[in-house]
Give the backbone structure.
Amino acid sequence: MPKKKSSTRKKRVSNKSFKSRVGQTIKKLAIYSFVIGGILLSLYTFYLNSIIKEKFEGRLWDIPAKVYARSLEIYPGSSLSAKQLQKELLLAGYRKDKKPSTQGSFSINKQVIDVVTREFSFPDGDEVSRKLRIKFSSNQVKSIYDLSRRRSISLIRLDPAQIGSIHPKLHEDRLLLTQQQVPNKLKEVLLAVEDRGFYDHYGIDPKGIIRAIWTNIKAGATVQGGSTLTQQLVKNYFLSRERTLVRKLNEAIMSLLLEYHYSKDEILTAYINEVYLGQDGRRAVHGFALASEFYFKRPIQQLSTAQIALLAGLVKGPSWYNPRSHEDRALKRRNTVLKVMLGQQLLTKNQYQRALKSSLGVSRRLSYSSSRFPAFLDSVKNQLQQDYDQDDLKKKGLNIFTTFDPKVQWAAEYALSERLKYTNKKLAKNLQGAIVVSRRNSAEILAIVGGKDSQEGSFNRAINAHRQIGSLIKPAIYLTAFEQQYTLASVLNDTSFSAKSSKGKYWQPKNYDKKEHGQVPLHVALAKSYNLSTARLGMEIGVDKVLNTVRKLGAATDALPYPSVLLGSIALSPLQVTQMYQTIADQGFYSPLHSIISVQDEQNEPVQRYPIKVERRIDENLMYLLNANLQEVVSMGTGKGLARYLSQANQLAGKTGTTNNLRDSWFAGYGQNLVGVVWMGRDDNKSAGLTGSSGALRVWGLMMKQLDVGKLEQNQPKGIKWHWVDSKNQLTLSGKCNNAEYLPFVKGTEPSNKRSCQSGKVQKKYSKNWFEQLFE
């Protein structure tokens, strides 16, 4: 028996020993796990910490580049109506008030506009805000009066309209506020609604979560959030939207780290700039500053209490409470926020009642897409890409000041749409158009229409559509001929012929009217756009030389010197054609077309200016001859239809263009101030059923009727002399004989044979010919 007891005791000791060893092992594993977990958590925390410091201390946000129109300068006598100024002000984001008192507001009463201008930093200096009264008479500015200083003003410059942005991939947009710029009322409302314990917690607030649940139960609605503002900032700025335990853990750790490194005011300001508050097409509206402009068209500092309450209420759900789409929901949400403000003693009962009775006050929606004028913005991007990296354009908040003129753009868009209205409905359905307008003396691009549907993302025909230019090439042919001693009085042979190509094919051009005109003076051949005489001339002087002239005029082309080039078989875009005619209009001076004046950084410091580059490419004497001849096109040639639209048409210059089977309709024209090119046709390259005269010319005329194109004034070079000539017999005459023509010549190129008017041949009653009328 004693041996049995001993055996039992040994078993008990053995069991205790085993349990002890297991317990010790578990403890060790727990300690090791805790230590390893702590190390891993520390390493992970260190990793999250590096992310926070790197992003929060670097560039917090990608700020899109903002693209501005030209500034509008107004002075007594300037060509501007009250309605036109109102349109410009609305485009620039000004709001219409009965009694304008804050920056960016105006009123209109018949021929009087009162406006409070906005202060603005221009590349060449700052403009202060002014309260002005502008009076109009007969579509002109009559007077400008400073209501604050009580004195007349000779010139004012309005802040330009933002016409587009160059966005990051996410299409986020925001206006940044500094700590000093954030209104106290906004801070108070946000903390009351979103995080009352903000200045007491360390990033996460368990008590706040419990308090929010209880408050929402009592209110019967969600009036207070459970997450702290710090957590919301971390969630929106650093993390994805997925709902997982890992993300919640990251949110908690990063909130603590953010609070450790940065002050409460820094965190609150970052939140105010980051929070998502709405959507405008593809553009996401972030931050209260941009939301204020987006919903109310005024700076955040000028908002009423009710308006601030509305914005604060949007934090909970910008789409659900969108005041433009869901006015009732937005009103209810705003009133809930106002009630919270009353409960937190941020409002008196009287203030609360007044705010409660006020309307939402949301402005009519404007298009704040990445571009209101996408065709012009394409031109801006193309120019910027030569000097800037894409990331810089999309992230560094550059301010880009352009040459864009809204008045010219609207005139171009209107002219194209009106012409399409009155075109055969069958044709108009598939008909398209493109327009480019530039300033003659500076090569500034003022307007671009890329198609009849000027929407973002649509095909930009003005820049990207390359179409055969038809007779628009003819000025280059005649200019080349002038270089080889041809004159306006040279006689050309306008009869049929055929040319054999190297492949054995025959090219047989024809005139548009299917007729032959025999012997014609050179200036008549261009004015009437005769194909036969022009093609013969081009073959004689050399197609390769004609193409060299096209390139000298500024149109880059790799076309081969086939005879068909002489009738415009080369394909160019409307922008390239504008460059050609820009050089012609500026009397042989080549200036690259450009759409940017200067670039500033986000601190309004100048980064780059774009001075005008000028290069003499064509002799001034030859350009004088060509410009005179292109005026004849409009006064008595294929462009004479302009007289239906413009009383001064015979003092403008231009050229029509039509391609085979009426596929393309072109007109390129210019006056003293403006150069414009219009193309009409179909994208599928089928017949448009329009000639240059019946299509594009009419659009051009309707457009320029609304603008100050200016009467063309040519300064006669010293190398030019006018003579009375008999072109048919190649004679220089002594005076105004019968059938005489008064033409300009480069000195020494006039007909060498001279003759006095024979007896009885002198014209008794003489009426001035078109040349004399133009240059008298």
Observations:
- The radius of gyration is 37 Å.
- Confidence is low (pLDDT under 50) at residues 759-768.
- DSSP finds 24 helices and 35 strands in the chain.
